[in-house]
Automatic annotation (TrEMBL):
Cited Gene3D superfamilies: 3.30.70.100
Domain HMA: 24-90
Annotated Pfam families: HMA (PF00403)
GO molecular function: metal ion binding
CDD domains, sorted: HMA
Protein name listed in UniProt: Mercuric transporter periplasmic component
Length: 102
């Protein structure tokens, strides 16, 4: 477990290094999305982040699914972007990071 933690810290520390990018897909639960007009607002806030490759927003599910390069950005940046746009969010699901059963 200690090793995994160190690896995560090392990954975060290397955000400015553009080598061997790992593409991740995460789903954020997004607050304040009440109508279809909110979709482009949320989408734009996420698309502007360096390293974000694809954004899919669902007003029905109140989620934003984001494909990003984890060498360029991270979940905290994604959350900050939607929050600054007026749509607070949090990590709902991380598709590419799988947890092992104990
Ligand atoms: Cu709206």
């Amino acid at each position: 477990m200690k090793f995994i933690k160190a690896a995560v810290i090392a990954t975060l520390a290397a955000t400015s290094v553009p080598a061997l990018a790992a593409v991740r897909t995460v789903t954020l639960a997004v607050d304040n999305m009440t109508c279809v007009t909110c979709v482009p607002m949320v989408k734009k806030s996420l698309s502007q982040i360096r390293g974000v490759k694809r954004v899919a927003v669902s007003v029905e599910a109140k989620t934003a699914t984001v494909v990003y390069d984890d060498k360029a950005t991270n979940v905290a940046e994604l959350v900050k972007a939607t929050t600054n746009a007026g749509y607070p969010s949090r990590l709902k699901r991380s598709a590419s990071q799988q947890r092992r059963a104990r």
